[in-house]
Amino acid sequence: MKDVYWYHPDYLGNTEFVTDIGGYPYQHLFYSPFGEAIVSQQYTSGRYDNPHRFNAKELDPETGLYYYGARFYNPKTSIWLSVDPLADHPDQTDKSPYAAMWNNPIRFNDPDGRCPECEENVIDPTDGQSYISTGGAEYIFGNGEWTRQGGALDEVVVTPSGLEELSQDANSGNGETQGVFGAATPIALTLAAADGPIPFGDIIGAGVLLGAATYDLTQRKYITYTLTNPVTGQIYAGRASGFGDPQSIMMNRFSGHHMRKLGFGKPQLDRVAQGYPVGYYAIRGREQNIVDAYGGIGSPIV
Q1: Which of 121, 139, 141, 269 has its CA 20 to 30 A from that of 164?
Q2: What are the pLDDT digits (tens) for 36-62?
Q3: Is pTM, for the whole model, over 0.85?
Q4: Domain boundaries in the chain?
């Protein structure tokens, strides 16, 4: 049987995760705003290397360029290699014909290498008539004007506190919140209906955030541990994450653990894994293995 892989994109079509036929993580990719690869992690030394990456376009491994259909794009220099075929469109006369995504890749993309969001000149439209723009937005005519229905975000807010994963405890259903971007500098990048290029200061801020995110993705440790109730003999299996010594990560989690009120103690470190997504999913699986080993949820021991 041939190998089967599934792509998992973000809102701009960038492939961030690749899973295999069993649903297990195979590859993780992370990009700068203009498409240069920052992180490329692969679960195994498998034969398949996903070529469909930034904006889901195919990356040429020899040139490092993406082909969009109308022209080639260089993610390292953040410019097109040729002039936009729609450079004379009224919406683009104030923009460079080589500029990618109108210098705002967080809000816009270029689906085929032409203007990100150029409206069509429809003659004598009727109420209810619609079309899809080059940027993927649907326009519907009504009451004498075109109304934009979607295709690009009206607002993007990036804050460390807003980028968190909620990991669920297998035993009780009470969540443990671990911030994936916990080490990031506390800045916010907000583009509220921004039609122009990203301000230079925000680009620097975004770079700091991306660098911190990269550190978090590669250096965060994930652990499993057990707690024991000396009276009932029950075993509690849990997981946590953090930086530094695994024993300290476990004790920091135990210090405010909700199971202490139920008489559970004697924390014992089980396994340690590092890096996201490989370490994260390995520890999630290990936690379930512990629960299953003691009879599963609902057994007298767990």
Answers
A1: 269
A2: 988 888 776 667 888 889 988 999 989
A3: no
A4: 1-115, 118-151, 157-211, 221-293
